[in-house]
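Changelog note: in this version the structure field was regenerated for every chain. One regenerated record is shown below for reference.
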Amino acid sequence: MTLMRRHLPWALSGLASRSALAKAAPLRVAAESFPPFTHQADGRVQGLDVELVSRVMAGLGQTLEISILPWKRALLDLEEGVLDAVLGVSRGGLNEREEMLAFPDEPLSTAYSHFYFRADRPFLFDGLFTLKGKRVAVLAGYRHPPDFSAASYFQREASATHEQSLRKLLAGRVDLALVHAAVGEYLIQREGWSEQLRADAAPIAPGRLYMGFSRQRGHALLAERFGLALQRYKRGPEYRQMLARYGLRPEVLAGPQA
């Protein structure tokens, strides 16, 4: 996960009317810096997930205060009862986060990664042994499949962000970069790297990312209501328009099984 040096100020991201503001105090929500989903720019917190959950919550009469925090700090604040929710969280490999967080049935998106390579150095992933002798940029703090983490026949080089991983790849400092599919697509489009970088087609470590609600603060029912509202919103035209503004295709967020 990306680790930041200081606690950034809370940023109001609710989109509700004044009447909705009067009904309920804003929920305190944390996310890590993960463009285009969540990031800090121009003095405010923004991104696809920020806009999405703010709109859905506005329909429930609830506003949000979203901050960008280091992931470990966000989990600590959850345990201490400081936060109401976190964005972009998985249930955990053994559903170990269920005791602390209430999860809606509907995820924000499906998360999976690709191995990115330079166009002038083609690569085809066909099992872990195709990584033999390679230098692979990975995101620091992330849990990877045990066999990937334990393999000794290739090198893993930690990066603070996916963008840093791709820049290492462009510079020839690594042979491959393991990057979240939607983030990689967004960065390649934003930076104009489409002629230089390619993604292997194989999806790596697919999973689902949610808005997780604090059980300690009594938000289990809100999690259920949010899930139903999110499902309805994602069926409508506004959601596809929102994805288009961020340069993302619905099938990328739906996952490789869709």
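Spot check on this record: Residues 220-234 form the longest helix (15 residues). The longest strand covers residues 204-214.
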